[in-house]
Design brief:
Layout: H1 8-14, H2 18-21, E1 34-43, H3 47-55, E2 65-75, E3 80-84, H4 91-98, E4 106-111, E5 114-115, H5 121-130, E6 132-136, H6 147-157, H7 162-175, H8 191-203, E7 209-213, H9 221-237, E8 241-246, H10 249-255, E9 258-263, E10 266-271, H11 273-278, H12 283-289, H13 300-303, E11 309-310, H14 316-326, E12 330-333, E13 341-344, H15 345-351, E14 367-369, H16 374-384, E15 388-391, E16 397-401, H17 403-410
Parallel strand pairs: 3-8, 3-9, 6-7, 7-8, 11-12, 14-15
Antiparallel strand pairs: 1-2, 1-4, 4-5, 9-10, 12-13, 15-16
Helix pairs in contact: 6-7, 6-8, 7-8, 8-9, 16-17
The protein binds adenosine-5'-diphosphate and magnesium ion (MG).
Magnesium ion is lined by residues 91-92, 214.
Length: 416
């Protein structure tokens, strides 16, 4: 592993969030969009008494199945929060418990600050109509209605006047790339197009919360990738919070701001894509993590190595002595009138001018942003043939990355 990882907190500080990049309307930017606290779901004839036994340590209560076991997490406003796990790990039960499509056995759920488990039926159905939208794996379109009416359906239920709802539906159909299909029936569309209709139908109401349960799992890989891109684009432009369920790590890494990993009803790890890939909490997560395309997950700020700084007026011979003493591969020089650059011991050997001062060297160093992916950093390493400097959005130097650091970050620990 790399020697001097920036702490995860430091890496996060330097990684601009979606919210910093794209200011969107947020009602409570400081609070949580969803708060889940010690949530349980036991299926079976006597869930409450079975729950007591589970809480007392039983692993199996005959006739009962604990699909969600004491799960707690917060989802931030405007975040795309992914829940990932193998089939049967409790993902669908969990997401349905959030809006009480399934009644939880115990625990607390708050959405936008309101306790969901104490809402009346009328309040619940109002929220489902107005503020929450759901997209499922099997599209659930109305077969005898055309695309336009399918997309406008929720607005119709909410009694939005016909003209307005059709206008909004048209706009949303255009946004998901389905212009021209308004008058078709679902049976005339491919699976990918049907799921676009499903997305449009969910988004047309401009919901505050979008829940997606393996929405793309039934689609071919290329179409799935297209729809992931589409969703990311819509998520960046919109102001809704999304909870996205998948069993596919690549999908989770691509769409998730943060990922919660479930196993047998338990939340085993919650973190950014980088946290999951670089620091898997256990063997279960590690089995997913080894499959991850690391160059598309790891960010420059996370692997940047601290470099010593040497004074611009220092002669090369003194700089070589400093290299020898502290054993580092490169050092930062900040000449008065030019951009800072990195020198390596190799540069200095080649020059063979012991009295020349560092600040007079004509060396150019490429800068990469802290949130740049490793894949982009590697392109720059290859192009420039030199180590690169990593900088924060404010332009502060976070450290350096050379070939050896990049290769170490690419390799999976324990695989060699
Ligand atoms: N209505 C139900 N009655 C009994 N067991 C159920 C029911 N729904 C789901 N389960 C069980 O709960 C566990 C979690 O299921 P589910 O939430 O569908 O997981 P996932 O979505 O991760 O595949 C599974 O073992 C499943 O068989
Ligand atoms: Mg499921």
């Amino acid at each position: 592993m790399t020697k001097q990882l920036l702490s995860p907190q430091a890496a996060r500080r330097h990684r601009p969030t979606e919210q910093q990049l794209i200011p969107g309307p947020q009602i409570s930017p400081a609070g949580s969009a969803i708060e889940v606290d010690d949530l349980w779901k036991v299926y079976g004839p006597n869930p409450k008494s079975a729950l007591k036994e589970y809480r007392d340590g039983a692993t199996y209560v005959p006739g009962h199945m604990t699909a969600v076991r004491g799960v707690s997490f917060d989802v931030r406003p405007c975040e795309t929060f992914v829940v990932m796990g193998l089939s049967g790990s409790g993902k669908s039960t969990l997401i349905r418990c959030l809006t009480r499509l399934i009644e939880p056995t115990a625990g607390r759920v708050k959405i936008d600050g309101n306790h969901v488990l104490t809402l009346s039926d009328a309040e619940l159905s109002q929220q489902r109509r107005r503020d929450w939208a759901m997209v499922f794996q099997h599209f659930g379109l109305l077969p005898h209605r055309r695309v336009l009416q399918n997309v406008a359906y929720g607005l119709e239920i909410s009694r939005v006047p016909r003209r307005e709802r059709e206008e909004r539906a048209h706009r949303m159909i255009e946004l998901v790339g389905l212009s021209g299909t308004e008058q078709k029936y679902p049976s005339e569309l491919s699976g990918g197009m049907r799921q676009r209709v499903g997305l449009a139908r969910a988004l047309v109401q401009n919901p505050r919360l979008l829940l997606l349960d393996e929405p793309f799992s039934a689609l071919d890989p290329l179409i799935r990738a297209d729809l992931q891109d589409e969703l990311l684009r819509l998520a960046r432009g919109g102001s809704q919070t999304s909870v996205f369920i998948t069993h596919d790590l690549t999908e989770a890494l691509k769409v998730g701001d943060r990922i919660a990993i479930m196993r047998d009803g338990v939340l085993v790890q919650l973190g950014t894509p980088e946290d999951i890939v670089l620091n898997p909490a256990d063997d279960y997560v590690r089995r997913f993590a080894v499959e991850a395309p690391r160059s598309k997950v790891v960010r420059a700020a996370t692997i940047a190595q601290a470099v010593p700084e040497l004074p611009a007026e220092l002669p090369i011979e003194a700089a070589l002595a400093a290299f020898a003493q502290n054993g580092s591969g490169s050092a930062l020089v900040r000449p008065d009138a030019r951009a800072p650059f990195l020198i390596t011991a190799q540069d200095l050997f080649q020059l063979n001018e012991p009295r020349r001062v560092l600040g007079s060297l004509e060396i150019r160093t490429s800068n990469v942003k802290g949130d740049e992916l490793l894949a982009g950093v590697m392109q720059e390493l290859i192009r420039s043939g030199r180590p690169v400097l990593v900088e924060s959005p404010a332009g502060d130097h976070l450290g350096a990355i050379d070939n050896a650091t990049a290769v170490r970050a690419l390799s999976v620990p324990g695989s060699t």
